[in-house]
User: Fold these one by one.
Assistant:
Number 1:
Amino acid sequence: MKLSSAKDRILIIIPVFLLLVLHSSCHSLSRITPSQSLKDGDVLVSEGRTFALGFFTPSNNSRKRYVGIWYNISSKPTVVWVANRQNPLYDNSGVLSINTQGNIVLVYNDTHLNRNSSIWSSNVSISSSSHTFAKLQDTGNLVLIRNQGRRKVMWQSFDYPGDTRLPCMKFGVDRKTGFNRFFTSWKTPDDPGLGHVTLMIDPIGYPQLFIYKNGAPFWRGGSWTGQRWSGIPAMTPNFIYHLTLVDNANEVSLVTEVLDSSIFSRIVLDNTGHETRTIWQDKEKRWLQVGYSPTEDCDHYRWCRSNSKCDPYNGDKFECMCLPGFEPINLQEWNTRNASSGCARKKNVSTCQSGEGFVKVARVKLPDTSKARVDKSESMSY
Ligand SMILES: *[C@@H]1O[C@H](CO)[C@@H](O)[C@H](O)[C@H]1NC(C)=O
Ligand SMILES: *[C@@H]1O[C@H](CO)[C@@H](O)[C@H](O)[C@H]1NC(C)=O
Ligand SMILES: *[C@@H]1O[C@H](CO)[C@@H](O)[C@H](O)[C@H]1NC(C)=O
Ligand SMILES: *[C@@H]1O[C@H](CO)[C@@H](O)[C@H](O)[C@H]1NC(C)=O
Ligand SMILES: *[C@@H]1O[C@H](CO)[C@@H](O)[C@H](O)[C@H]1NC(C)=O
Ligand SMILES: *[C@@H]1O[C@H](CO)[C@@H](O)[C@H](O)[C@H]1NC(C)=O
Ligand SMILES: *[C@@H]1O[C@H](CO)[C@@H](O)[C@H](O)[C@H]1NC(C)=O
């Protein structure tokens, strides 16, 4: 009797011990391979430890679990990318692994079907998982690599941006395939689901930066001046980044090179239609805002409508003004500070003293260049 009860105790103690060990071990991985998965609680850390990938729960949203990449520079993670944006998990059974086809897949314990179901996948066509692994680069890019003699990137998270633009990320349109890398806001600050705000480069005519809200233009960042978007005067060339717009028959894209890699920065598009540019202040352990667009009423798309300009520094006066030679179409409405009817050419008034000519309008964004053609042999001054 005594002996068997001791055995019982041992049998009971062992499973309890194993359970404790399983739950307290948080692995820090450097790669995901076909034999090394990432469980909820584990993290995949980039070589320089700047970024980490793992499971997280957005604030005020206690039930849902997402796989994301975050800046691993303070105790409070700053999420920069989310895999299963539209399909959260509701328990801790999620596992990120490489399946037999060589894709990165997020599976969970599907209690309805009583099996593991996939909820997200990198979804590229690779036929086998041999020599395949996933790695988190120090730029915050999750890459799926096939290493057969030479390394080939099969898939990368930078090709599927979320709401955050990071240095080294390239965004824009592949003119040959139509593949477009653009940003989509979260639904709300605590729901990473696809929101109604997007930020993209419009490749038509001469390239422009746009924020769209519910599909309609909300902000025109302007055309590329050679060094910055014309609608972001603060984006002057500096010691942190070097920006290059590539515009040729193959693509329109903006590539950011980081000159000082010790500076952590990000640009976040939110569900109100604004982008916020911030830089990490390590001493104060907070993100410092260095830019915000659109800033004021004038910055909004078509705020003053046709043939007008908008001056936010116009004192108490109405910020909208008709261009030289133009007048409000509906003066009564205009006098109530309502520009919705816009301006039209004044009748029988010659603006230019003797016949045709040009009038300089200073301190304005270059007008919409979607119908413009640019002679690239000329340099563009701003
Ligand atoms: C980065 O991630 C590792 C692993 O999760 C963690 O131990 C470390 O504290 C993180 N770094 C910072 C600065 O929080
Ligand atoms: C999945 O969930 C069911 C029901 O909770 C449980 O019985 C089963 O052990 C789980 N399977 C795995 C692999 O965790
Ligand atoms: C589900 O996935 C887990 C973790 O990868 C694994 O341990 C388990 O055996 C899988 N269950 C089934 C039914 O495939
Ligand atoms: C996977 O990719 C194929 C072809 O590119 C597409 O038709 C399919 O909808 C994708 N599946 C998922 C789950 O995204
Ligand atoms: C979470 O809720 C608190 C209190 O309601 C609020 O102050 C905070 O802004 C919320 N955070 C997010 C990210 O929504
Ligand atoms: C401005 O005028 C338009 C009619 O042209 C009207 O529909 C709109 O409500 C007016 N806006 C305001 C703020 O009064
Ligand atoms: C504009 O000038 C032309 C010729 O000078 C004249 O025929 C026409 O009536 C004028 N229109 C208005 C609206 O004054």
Note: Residues 37, 95, 115-116 surround 2-acetamido-2-deoxy-beta-D-glucopyranose (ligand 3) (CB under 6 Å).
Number 2:
Amino acid sequence: MAQIPFLDLRASYLALQSDIDAAVARVLASGWYIQGPELTEFEQAFAAYCGADHCVGVASGLDALILSLRALDLKQGDEVIVPSHTFIATWLAVSAVGAVPIPVEPDANSYNLDPDLIEAAITPNTRAIIAVHLYGQPADLDPILTIAQTHNLAVVEDAAQAHGAEYKSRRIGAHGDVVCWSFYPGKNLGAMGDGGAITTNRADLAKRVRSLGNYGSKKKYVNDEQGTNSRLDPVQAAVLAVKLKHLDAWSDRRREIAGRYTQELRGVVTPHIPNWANPVWHLYVIRHPKRDELMKQLADEGIQTLVHYPIAPHCQEAYRDLGYARGSFPIAETLADDMLSLPIGPQMPDDHQTRVIETVNRLVAAL
Ligand SMILES: *Cc1c(COP(=O)(O)O)cnc(C)c1O
């Protein structure tokens, strides 16, 4: 029985092999391996794609978040509202600048930050809200932006899973103060290694992030502040520029796969899409009370599934010092217990999807 992988990254490379190989060879032959024209070209193309004035490449999605919070002058003791249900990097960025992550539960239907719960979490120390567009579905930005404006808070978007997603017909990329991207290979727009970027309409933040990622220097060997080394290298930028041209077609293919899952799956909870959202389906996540059993039985039938994410950040050992326990954020905990991500990707063949659907439906009927 052929194995069905969760995501076939090699297939994505092979689909564009000659273009990607040519782009890499061009950078290698150029003699220019840090910053330079290949990076600038990709930054401009990605900013234009996102409808943002500025794009700054950095070394990873986590660094995009950390440098954004630093550029906003977040510091020790400040509080940042974060979703209780997210990849832990969202929280780690807050902790990395010495601030405190203040979790807010997701909406139980969209799995994204519930705007109705945000104001109760705001204190005099709150400085920012990080909205995550989880699974490629935009968070409900308008009410979040209104709350932020009322309380004078910055809005940072974690768009690591949302390349090309639209909120009310406008692409994610510049709704909030700064938008953070990851180009980790498995993301919808992925490099051949680590990479990240920020997009923003705020020239001040773009300039500051670029300086912070370059040792705190705008002019060589003149350091305005204590920065770090976090740059998107030109080899990755050249690969990303090739892939960016195919992103919309890949998103369409993901939408097609998601549509079929939603139509044909039985006996599981499928994702709810608000009418203002045009998601890009980084993940297709179902829910079932016997998730662990279903996952194991699918694995026995050669179908690889994953859980995003099995332990809510507040239940992680890494965040023990915040003093939360099981029960502190019950929606996030329930999602961690019953969610299961099915295989999805731009190169997933139809017959693979047919087998996933038939197998899930058969197994669920007997669980
Ligand atoms: C992947 C991811 C990150 C981190 O990106 P890296 O490039 O791996 O550092 C942050 N937030 C979310 C929601 C992610 O999915």
Note: The pocket of pyridoxal-5'-phosphate is lined by residues 60-62, 86-87, 89-90, 132, 158, 160-161, 182, 184, 194, 196 (CB under 6 Å).
